[in-house]
Design brief:
Residues 13-452 form the Major facilitator superfamily (MFS) profile domain. This protein has helices at 11-19, 23-30, 35-42, 46-49, 51-74, 76-96, 100-114, 117-132, 138-165, 170-173, 175-189, 210-228, 235-252, 262-267, 269-298, 304-310, 312-324, 332-350, 358-386, 392-418, 424-447. The chain is mainly α. The chain has 3 domains: 7-196, MFS general substrate transporter like domains (Growth Hormone, Chain: A), CATH 1.20.1250.20; 209-255; 260-455, Growth Hormone, Chain: A.
Length: 462
């Protein structure tokens, strides 16, 4: 049997790299169909059980860049395996503690564990490029985005099947075989961290930049809690977030090995523009996905199953467009189309009402599916090529934080917009917000000069 490093970028290398990162998105969407059964089984109110969703968002927002930093320092394979173990153990918790507390602990553990997968996978691919002295195929990088898009789409379907045939604990237990399989494949087929170019022998605690991690965690968590409780009495959380993030910038400017390299972000306009695009586009997409589902059931009178089927064009659009550009190194065109699709979708939403025909609803969801597929693959390609090689893990984690905060921001906007119940007028307000976000993404894309080059060309900013 050949050494893992000799496998190149073939199927053996790709399988474990692609499976693990799918666990976070599938857990994010799979829980949506399990909230009511869990609330009933554990005698928990709807306002409390929603923390199963919020909890994973919070830990993912904080731990994705944290795990990425650990991958940069200690080696991605080690961090990848550690995260998979945590996720697998987390999946077992509800069997031992079939309570809401047990479910919440499991969700937090799964969130922490799966947060290692994407940044570690990106670092593993970058390390393999150095070993082989050749670039990874674009289709492999696109595969990371595509696997996340596909698994996020099938999450509710898988969750529904599990709940139909098993207890609510199966929603958590399903992580165990996925994690176990990925651990085995990682041990068999991924190169050891000892073979990394410039691998470190021992990393000191100071290299972790614990104060920077703490300031980042406080800032992001405060901002997330504010978004979750978007009201005047929660404004103190904004003050905490601002103080923590300003403190983070000041602290990191004086560090040789910062947790968040603010100097690099200030000079690497391609990377900061990527984070901005991800936040703008995904906030709009999540607004539509969450808002449309509620509107379809409460206003248009569709059943929950039918409302779910109405979102099928979104999944299909994302899958088809992401596959269509999987091999292209050019990203400016797809990103412009993604932003434009969101603009057109926002315009269509302005004319949405209770009498809208089914085909009109399907077209709207398809447009935002196109936006998601093109944005995910193209922004990831920019991230991989424009982030400094030594910081690819933390940079990748920050990209996921941008998306997670967008999802939370979307959820917080829907509350005051819909008020007591969804309405046509509420969806029109959502349309205006989506248009503003899409216009912002379009402007950022047009202004980003680095996009005029292929992602395989060297960046002048690095």
């Amino acid at each position: 049997m050949s050494a893992p490093s000799a496998v190149g970028f073939g199927g053996r290398f790709g399988a474990p790299v692609l499976i693990g990162p799918a666990l976070n998105p599938i857990n994010t969407t799979m829980i949506s169909v399990a909230l009511v059964p869990i609330a009933r089984a554990t005698h928990t109110s709807a306002s409390v059980v929603i923390w199963l969703v919020a909890g994973l968002y919070i830990v993912s927002s904080v731990f994705q860049p944290t795990m990425g930093k650990l991958a940069d320092l200690f080696g991605p394979r080690r961090v990848y395996l550690a995260g998979l173990v945590i996720a697998g153990v987390g999946g077992l918790v509800p069997l031992l503690a079939p309570t809401f507390a047990g479910a919440l602990v499991a969700r937090l553990a799964i969130g922490i564990g799966t947060s290692s997968a994407y940044p570690a996978a990106m670092t593993i691919i970058r390390d393999q490029e150095k070993r082989l002295d050749r670039k990874a195929p674009q289709v492999l990088l696109s595969g990371l985005s595509i696997s996340g898009l596909v698994t996020a789409a099938i999450g509710p379907v898988l969750g529904g099947l599990l709940l139909q045939h098993f207890t609510w604990q199966s929603i958590f237990l399903v992580n165990v075989p996925f994690a176990a399989l990925t651990i085995v494949l990682t041990l068999l087929w991924l190169p050891s961290d000892r073979t990394r170019s410039g691998a470190r022998g021992t990393v000191g605690v100071r290299s972790l930049d614990l104060p920077g991690m703490l300031l980042f965690a406080v800032g992001i968590t405060s901002a997330v809690f504010f978004f979750l409780h978007l009201e005047t009495r929660a404004l103190w959380l904004v003050a905490v977030a601002v103080v923590a993030l300003v403190g983070l910038v000041l602290w990191e400017r004086g560090q040789q090995a910062p947790f968040v390299d603010v100097r690099m972000l200030a000079s690497n306009h391609a990377l900061t523009a990527t984070y901005a695009r991800l936040f703008l586009v995904y906030t709009g997409i999540y607004l539509v996905v969450y808002g449309f589902t509620q509107w379809a059931q409460a206003v248009a009178g569709y059943t929950s199953d039918a409302a779910g089927l109405l979102q099928l064009p979104s999944a299909v659009g994302a899958a088809v467009t992401s596959l269509a550009i999987a091999r292209t190194p050019r990203v400016r065109g797809p990103l412009l189309v993604a932003a434009t699709a969101s603009v057109v979708g926002g315009v269509f939403l302005l004319f949405l009402d209770v009498g809208s025909p089914v085909w009109f609803l399907l077209v709207i969801m398809g447009l935002f599916g196109v936006a998601q597929g093109l944005s995910s693959v193209s922004n990831q390609a920019v991230l991989f090529r424009r982030a400094p090689a030594a910081q690819i893990g933390s940079a990748s984690g920050l990209s996921r934080t941008s998306v997670q905060i967008g999802a939370i921001a979307a959820s917080s906007i829907l509350g005051p917009v819909f008020g007591d119940a969804p309405s046509d007028q509420g969806m029109h307000v959502i349309a205006i917000v989506v248009l503003a976000l899409a216009a912002g993404a379009l402007l950022v894309t047009v202004a980003d000069r680095s996009l005029r080059r292929s992602v395989n060309e060297p960046s002048a900013s690095l």
